[in-house]
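Teaching assistant's notes for section 4

Start the section by putting this record on the projector. Ask students to predict, before seeing the second block, whether UbiA prenyltransferase family protein will look compact or extended. Collect guesses on the board.
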Amino acid sequence: MYGLSRGTQAVLSIAQPLVAALLADGSPSPGRLALATVGGLAGFLAVFATNDLMDAGVDGRRFATHLRADTGPDIDSAGARHPLAQGLLTRRLALGWIAGLSVLALVIGALLNPVCVLLFLLAALLEVVYCRLATVTPYKFLLSGVMVAVGASAGWFAFRTSVDPLPLGLFVLWMFAWEIGGRNIPNDLADVAEDVRLGIRTVPVVYGARPAVWLAGGFLLVAFAASGVLMVVAWPVFGVVGLVGTLAVGVLTLLRPALLLVRDPGAALPAFNLATFHPVGVLAALVAALLLR
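Reveal the predicted structure now:
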């Protein structure tokens, strides 16, 4: 079950809506924050498991033909890589797991703000469409960015009913660019050999590794810029600690992965792993800023 829901990735992903929550409310209620954390975890576990369920057929062929060469630790594969495709879980058990988690996420979302329910449903729908486009178009990476931005934005609405266009817009752009440049394209770079055999269309498969690297690097630069501008906008709440901390985390988890990819496209997994920790690092910086305020 941990592998089906990509447990490590799901736990780390909680940082995304929590950052949005702190941006929306610099002094969140601990009880509400705990409820949002549980709901967010349930939602991420359900969506990641849905991805494995939708891709079970393709992943089954992946395991039947060839496994990706071991190029180092992969956060996405912690627990077991595609356990449903490997026959480690039954489809019925996977469906029950996803349904239970989804109900929990929806109930908590409804308690916090009905908008959170709509955002969760939209993110789940985008995940399904993304999986369906696996062999259709390499531009599905755009859907991946939108899906992550939508899911992360639920944290804002869990603590605030109104929309503040500038900070929320910068946050959406930040999450959109980070997902594409830090996770989606690097993950595709690591899977090129398998994807070619399976007919999966990704940017590196269709256009080559070097254009994919520059595209990922461009999105990582956008994410770095958006996060910095956002912290300037949020200066009254997070101050110098929030700004400097966010920029420092960005150098390590956005700019460094970009540099790794430019130097060597084969370093896709190390770049992916580094970028995955970006929201967690920013969350830590913002919490520190609030505690020192």
